[in-house]
Automatic annotation (TrEMBL):
SUPFAM superfamilies: UDP-Glycosyltransferase/glycogen phosphorylase
All copies of domain Erythromycin biosynthesis protein CIII-like C-terminal, residue ranges: 291-410
Name listed for the protein in its UniProt record: Glycosyltransferase
Source organism per UniProt: Allokutzneria multivorans
InterPro entries from the UniProt entry: EryCIII-like_C, Glycosyltransferase_28, GlycoTrans_28_N, UDP_glucos_trans
Length: 412
């Protein structure tokens, strides 16, 4: 079967599908991954064909609007920044999806490509699958965020929801133009989202552990929580010698990295994290898009190193709470301290604390050295968190997220 996986977003939004692609190729399928040029090398490294979707997510997040979003800017400025980034995303994904998905006999899409992917699957009459990294179907069993407590707050959120669903916004107009281009009636974002959520011919699989978030009982048929999809790692990969030497030179260190997030300027953020390390604590800083950096006898800075190799060698992990990094920490059986920046990251941070593998979390906008030090100390020194993490890891590592997707494809 000729399969196209369309994945748009940051590293954590794309990397899980490289492992899935490698698995499906091993099952005899022809697989292409459509994504931005930034990820061309990791796509080709997993054995899949690379197909281009225009845009540069790293540049977008480094822009004024991207920085405003990551600073947690609320009010009108935050709303306008979000709207501009959303319009840019809808337009650039639309430009590339039509040609990038040509010849597909099945279309698998992540959240960043779900609107265009759903519409293209319907227009072409081919099977389509939503592969989500966050619970995207409506449920009454849990909340995705902190609910407003006051009556005024609830009224405000209701009005915002009504405006989003009814007002013609720039992102909405961009999707309507895409619908016209592929021969469909223009209906807009809210209508397409509702249609995909209710369409039993649109299979929705969620790539996270049911140990962390069990499948809600009120979800529709043809949807499930199947376990994580892990990034591909070449069997020929070898760790940097300097990192191996550092790990061998002392007790397990604490990992600190914020992935594709930039929760602050590189130098002040690096110094804050250094100040947060408890006395005598060794640490591995991962540079990431934040530019985190420090170097001493007790601290080493690295670039990209597969988390499935690195995390089991850590005493604890400090990260931004992204879906994939959260899963990597669970897989490794180590305690976690989250510093969420935006999006789904606070949700995963709350889930880890509830599960018992994390002593707590601090929003990036409220981060202090003393607060971070207190959580790192608990994660490393209190045996409960490591014991709980080890038990959860057994469950997570028994799941077969790749196999569930392959079975869904076989069943059509």
């Amino acid at each position: 079967m000729r399969i196209v996986i369309a994945a748009v977003g940051s590293t954590g939004d794309v990397a899980p599908y490289t492992g899935l692609a490698a698995h499906l190729i091993g099952q005899g399928h022809e697989v292409a991954i459509a994504t931005q040029e930034l990820f061309a090398d990791v796509v080709r490294a997993c054995g899949a064909e690379f197909r281009l979707i225009p845009g540069d997510i790293q540049a977008a997040m480094a822009s004024e609007d991207g920085e405003q979003l990551q600073r947690g800017g609320g009010g009108l400025r935050g709303a306008l920044a979000t709207m501009r980034l959303a319009r840019q995303l809808v337009e650039t994904v639309g430009e590339g999806m039509i040609t990038a998905t040509e010849g597909a006999e099945a279309l698998l899409v992540n959240r960043g490509a779900v609107f265009h992917g759903y519409l293209l699957a319907k227009a072409r009459g081919i099977p389509g699958y939503g592969l989500e990294l966050f619970p995207m179907l409506p449920t009454t069993e849990f909340s995705f965020g902190d609910e407003p407590n006051s009556l005024a707050g609830k009224a405000f959120h209701w009005l915002v929801d009504q405006a989003v669903s009814r007002v013609r916004t720039p992102p909405d107009s961009a999707l309507r133009a895409f619908q016209k281009r592929i021969g469909l009636k223009p209906t807009g974002l809210a209508a397409v989202d509702d249609a995909a959520a209710a369409d039993l011919d649109w299979t929705v699989l969620h790539g996270f552990s049911p140990t962390l978030v069990p499948r809600p009982g009120d979800w529709r048929e043809n949807s499930d929580v199947v376990g994580y999809w892990w990034p591909h790692r070449s069997p020929d990969w070898q760790p940097p010698a300097r990192l191996v030497d550092f790990l061998d030179a002392g007790p397990p260190p604490v990992f600190v990295g914020f992935g594709s997030m930039s929760p602050g300027k590189a130098e002040p953020l690096s110094q804050l994290v250094l100040d947060a390390l408890p006395p005598g604590t060794r640490a591995v800083f991962q540079r990431g898009w934040a530019g985190l950096s420090a170097q001493s006898d007790d601290v080493i800075t690295i670039d990209e190193v597969p988390h499935d190799w690195l995390f089991p060698r850590m005493a604890a992990v400090v990260h931004h709470g992204g879906a994939g990094t959260t899963g990597a920490g669970l897989r490794a059986g180590v305690p976690t301290v989250s510093v969420p920046v935006l999006g789904d990251q606070p949700f995963w941070s709350r889930r880890l604390e509830k599960l018992g593998t994390s002593p707590g979390w601090i929003p990036a906008g409220e981060l202090t050295a003393s607060g971070l030090r207190a959580l790192i100390t608990r994660a490393v020194d209190e045996p409960y968190y490591r014991k709980k993490a080890a038990r959860v890891a057994e469950s997570v590592n028994s799941e077969d997220g790749f196999g569930h997707v392959a079975k869904a494809l076989e069943n059509g």
